[in-house]
From TrEMBL:
Cited Gene3D superfamilies: HAD superfamily/HAD-like, Putative phosphatase, domain 2
Protein name stated in the entry: Noncanonical pyrimidine nucleotidase, YjjG family
Molecular function as annotated in GO: 5'-nucleotidase activity
Record PANTHER family: PTHR47478, PYRIMIDINE 5'-NUCLEOTIDASE YJJG
Length: 226
């Protein structure tokens, strides 16, 4: 007998290789505005972006602020004034050119679907961008539904993001649901807050003291626990 019926997958760096796609898109953005892409500028942007996303997950700012401010602050730090909203749109258009898939992701989704699981995507992100990336990677048809924070109205780890899924899918028994993702602060923490099991895709990271139900180093190993 299956342990779970409903499987919720994070997208970025769980099923799609966001890090690789981001690296490509940032190179294009930096070149557009004459900033040298190297380890220093890459890390500078990452620090600014990470700080804003942390504030978003803590409920201190909205996603609109993240999308408006991250490139504005980065380029200002490099003495360039830009329209943050415009640059973010350019950046997302570059992201949409990529379809980098994590090793084993497609086979895993197909295996789950063929065995009768209900498979959802539960991701923080911009609706248009996430849907285009999933379609380009050939993953869209492997989900029963896509739940994207911009469309849902709440971000993981907010319990209202998960409650939206439960209500929309008419899920009553939360013991039949598992959340799978790479982010301890949004995927694993969100699952903990709402009281469902979680599988942390560590992708080689060290064990964390954050509470998760299971841990896998390879995405294909999810099959061992569902």
């Amino acid at each position: 007998m299956k342990k779970y019926q409903y499987v919720i997958f994070d997208i970025d760096n769980t099923l799609l290789d966001f890090s690789r796609s981001e690296y490509y898109a940032l190179q294009k953005v930096f070149a557009t505005y004459g900033v040298v892409f190297n380890e220093k500028t890459f890390n500078q942007y990452k620090e600014i972006n990470h700080d804003l996303w942390d504030q978003l997950e803590d409920g201190k700012i909205s996603k609109d602020v993240v999308l408006k401010e991250r490139f504005k602050r980065f380029f200002l730090a490099n003495n360039i004034v830009v329209d943050g909203v415009l640059v973010d749109k350019q950046y997302r258009s570059f992201l949409e050119e990529r379809n980098d898939v994590m090793d084993g992701a497609i086979d895993l989704l197909r295996e789950l679907k063929s065995n009768g699981y209900t498979v959802f995507a539960g991701t923080n992100g911009v609706g248009q961008t996430q849907r285009k990336r999933l379609a380009s990677a050939g993953l869209s048809d492997l989900f029963d539904a896509l739940y994207i924070s911009e469309e849902v109205g709440f971000e993981k780890p907010d319990v209202r993001f998960f409650d939206y899924i439960f209500n929309d899918a008419r899920i009553k028994d939360l013991s039949t649901v598992v959340m799978i993702g790479d982010s301890l602060s949004s995927d694993i923490e969100g699952a903990k807050r709402v009281g469902i099991d979680s599988i942390w895709f560590s992708n080689g990271s060290e064990t964390s003291d954050r509470k998760y139900t299971y841990k896998v180093d390879l995405i294909k190993d999810v099959l061992k626990f569902v």
